[in-house]
Amino acid sequence: MLETEGRARNEKLIRNAFGELMKDVCTSIPGHVLTFDPLTQRAQVQIGILRVDVNDATFTLKPIVEVPVYFAGGDYCVEYQIDPGCEGDILFSQRCIDGWVQSGGVATNPRGRFHNMQDAMFLPGFRSQPNVLPDFQNNGVRLRNKSGTQFVWLKNDNSISMDNGVARFNVLADGTTLMQNGAGSFQLQADGTFLINGLKITPDGDVITATGISLKNHRTKGVTRGSQISDEPTI
After folding, report:
1. Dist CA 91 CA 147 (whole Å)
2. 89 and 160: one domain?
3. Which of 52, 55, 171, 226 is the most buried (most CB within 10 A)?
4. 64-91 core/surface letters (b: 16 or more CB in 10 A; e: else)
């Protein structure tokens, strides 16, 4: 009986000790940006989960500095604004990244660090529930601002839409192109017909006014043939 209880206590001590050791093994954890340097593309980031010590007291970890920020791509990449408060995932390298950050390629390993908090990298885009994107469209690919008032949108029906909050530009699946703002609009239809603020230009070059008068084939009234000035067109 005593031997069994002693073994159980030892196992608990080992588990607790192992758990405390594992708290210092960094893998991945959510966090947010405090500051960002566009020149170096490095950020100061704050881990977003409180730490618990051996006495079950909670505390906030110190910010991590000089953290490389992820931008998708290689020779062609996606560049986006990083502001304080930007949420994401903090990744921790299994080895020291100091040499790699400075030289790239296959770098030396100047420090004997393993899964260390100093070897952090930041992946923006993971969002907590209070910061989910409003008006999210699960349709194709949309490059947008957080509020959704500006976007470039490649939809899954083969159409494209662009909006900056003032003007909107659309290319429909059949090739029809539309643009409009508060002052007017134009439309290039799939058959080549062009419409602009009520004026119509046909594929063969005829211009039809908003009242339906053709500038190519219209007739006038109130004049006989000669050098007189006619009245307005009739058709």
Report:
1. 27
2. no
3. 171
4. beebbbeeeeeeeeeeeebeeebbbbbb
Q: Where are the beta strands (DSSP E) in the chain?
A: 28-37, 42-47, 51-52, 58-59, 64-68, 87-92, 120-124, 141-144, 151-154, 160-163, 168-171, 177-181, 184-188, 194-196, 199-201, 207-208
Chain position carrying tokens 């002693």: 6
Query: How many domains are there within the chain?
Result: 2
Residue 174: both structure tokens together: 């059949």
Alpha-carbon torsion, ordered 86, 91, 93, 99, to 10 deg: -10
Is residue 83 a contact partner of residue 145, using CB atoms and an 8 Å limit? no
Same-domain status, 171 and 108: no
pLDDT computed for residue 26 by the predictor:
83
Residues 67 and 126 in one domain: yes
Residue ending a domain, choose from 131, 154, 181: 131
Whether residues 96 and 51 fall in one domain = yes
Q: Is residue 203 part of a domain?
A: no
CA-based nearest residue to 29, from 122, 98, 107: 122
C-alpha distances in Å from residue 156, one per residue of 140, 162, 189:
5, 15, 21
Tokens coding 23: 């708290």
pTM above 0.85, yes or no: no
Of the candidates 130, 124, 94, the residue with the CA atom closest to the CA atom of residue 112: 94
Look at the block and give the residue holding tokens 């400075």: 102
Average pLDDT over the chain, rounded to whole?
Answer: 87
Q: Which domain holds residue 154?
A: 141-197
